[in-house]
Amino acid sequence: MAPSPSASSTPPPRPNLLFRQLRGQRSPGEFAAAVRRAAREIGERVSCDARYVGRVEAGEIRCPNYAYERVFLHMFPGRTLTDLGFAPRAVVRGRGARGAGEARGADPTYGNDGSRARYPDDRFTGSSDGCAGDGGNSDGGNSGNNDCSSGNSDNKESDVRRRAFMTSGTATVAAASLGAAGLPLGGVAAAHVPKGRRFRAAGEREVCAVEEAVREIRLLDDRHGADGLYRRAAHPLRTAYALLDAGTTRQAGHRTADRLYSGAGELAISVGWLAHDSGRFDDARSHYAEALATARMAGDPALEAHAFCNTAFLARDTGRPREAVRAAQVAARLARELGSARFLSLLALREAGGWAGLGDHAGCRQALVRAHALFDRGPADTDPEWMTFYGPAELESLEAQCWSALGQWERASRHAQRAAGLAMALTPQLTRNIALYTAELADDLARAGRPDEAADAGLRVLALLDEVQSSRIACMLATTARLLLPHRLAPGVTDFLDQHAARARA
């Protein structure tokens, strides 16, 4: 069969040998990490990975977007894009360049610059080739830096991505929206339905996608914190509730419908936690209430107990300790039928936090004793999947928070020290938790009158903030810095204060 004229007229991509030489002996993954570090040095955020480096070297990316251009020119000062093996921007701009990309069978999941496609407010406006036009800004690789707005005509998607996206149906719904927003989803395919389109009834595949989105959000939060995830994670949540409105297929059965309700509720809690941890307390309260309503409609006591558990934590953090105690107690009543001692232990700690906020030493101690006794019973098959974060380090951290609320700084610092040490030893992959526990330690040490040790802990947290984005941690460090100001002439304290101030300015 003879090739089509459009295909035969399109030259194959030419490998970028100059860029490959610049990588040197580093692996694509190592070079991608160097690109991300260079981006942070100049205030950019690019989602560079080994796949992107491979596409550049293969010649699939003829010209990077503006964000990547700034990073590459920072990495290799004195060079131009042409010196790096790229084609001039004017050559690849416009519809002609986009047509060539289509002839090569462009991947609709990714922009021409290697970044994941973004879909502003479920609406599609115009088209672009991934290299911004005159005055445009399509730095898709700059994920997390720009909020997409339906009114911003500069944020445009290519016709190829738009057609593929709009015709893909609702196959892998929730995970799809998360992927479209720029978050990695492993092997989960991307799909999403624009606003105004009706969803067909959900089946097994859609329900699995909702459950996978929950797992991905929790995994990313554990590693990177909530700030960069919250707004993007709201997309799959809206999609999951649209699926609830559409119902499930008759073939799916009641079990699938129950899983869809539970999955949507757990997704609401996960997004609520991202709002909570990034300081959006009103949003968090709304998401938790949504999860509670979903749990009651579905008759799901496990989901309801989880929602009350998070509500108790939020109430403690927002100065409503009595509500925290009550919500934890209600959750415990619901959780007793689930057969999970670890879940009951966590709820006892939530209650202890409320009592500490009320200044009730006796109530706090009793709840802490109960929490330790339940924890010592060990894990069980009935423990909820979402409780993987709750281990010895989290137990120590939550107890440290109780003693801190009661003003017992030395005791709090001992528990915070144990939490940080256990996290490093047992779960080194949970970067966000390590940063949180160490930030708690710095605060407790500062209040206990040990400024040098507090500054040392603070420096360890600062070293992790390139990987972790959490308003909670940032606020704790800011408080520690204020507490250490009277000791600013001490060498270690000076170093911490200078680095903290430099990061704040940046």
UniProtKB/TrEMBL annotation:
Residues 115-124 have a biased composition (Basic and acidic residues). Residues 132-143 have a biased composition (Gly residues). Residues 95-158 are annotated as: Disordered. InterPro entries: TPR-like_helical_dom_sf. Residues 144-153 have a biased composition (Low complexity). This is Transcriptional regulator. It comes from Streptomyces silvensis.
